[in-house]
Specification:
By secondary structure, the protein is an alpha+beta fold. It is built from 4 helices and 8 strands, in the order ααβββββββαβα. The mean pLDDT is 94.
């Protein structure tokens, strides 16, 4: 956790730089180390031993590297663990409908609880490159879409709480279909 840049760190507000593809060995190693951190953080023994907070996504700027890359390690809709390495990711299309996590979002760079709804697109079509420099196009819905958008925001210098209504944290946007992620699961 000592390597995680905490809120207030200037790199978290920078727009990260594109990564040359094919990847340099240094960038591959950074991505692999980031993924290992996420895996360790979700292992009860290792997380207790090293005092790690559990994470499902990690952007390069959260470890002080201002490059457009992040990793995610989480369960998909079927309950299978999926890991993704993203280099120069972007959203190419998204739904009109939106969702939010009723308990708000968390972040390894934020050590305090933040209350409020963070509106996100319900589904996104995304494009980028993987660990091997191969172009990847995927569609994510629900929780995976939320996680992708959270990490992509980091690369643009945006923190999740920037998307919460400052005056009324639990007020949802008007004029758009929006519902809780958990309403989708029913």
């Amino acid at each position: 956790m000592d390597d995680i840049v905490r809120e207030g760190g200037p790199v978290l507000r920078q727009v990260a730089e594109p990564v040359p593809v094919p990847l340099k060995q240094e960038d591959r190693e950074t991505l692999l180390a980031m993924m290992q951190f996420l895996k360790n953080s979700q292992d009860p023994e290792l997380s207790a031993k090293y005092k790690l907070r559990s994470g499902i996504g990690l952007s390069a700027n959260q470890i002080g590297v201002a490059k457009r890359m992040f990793v995610t390690y989480l369960n998909n809709e079927k309950g299978d663990i999926v890991e993704h390495y993203w280099v120069n990711p972007k959203i190419v299309s998204h739904s009109v409908s939106m969702i939010y996590l009723p308990e708000s979002e968390g972040c390894l760079s934020v050590d305090r609880p933040v209350e409020g709804f963070v509106p996100r697109y319900e589904s996104v079509k995304v494009k980028g490159y993987d660990l091997n420099g191969k172009e990847v196009v995927k569609r994510f819905k629900g929780y995976q879409a939320i996680v992708f958008q959270h990490e992509l925001d980091h690369l643009d210098g945006v923190m999740f709480y920037d998307r919460i209504n400052a005056e009324h944290p639990f007020k949802l946007p008007q004029g758009v279909e929006i519902r809780s992620l958990y309403d989708l699961r029913k």
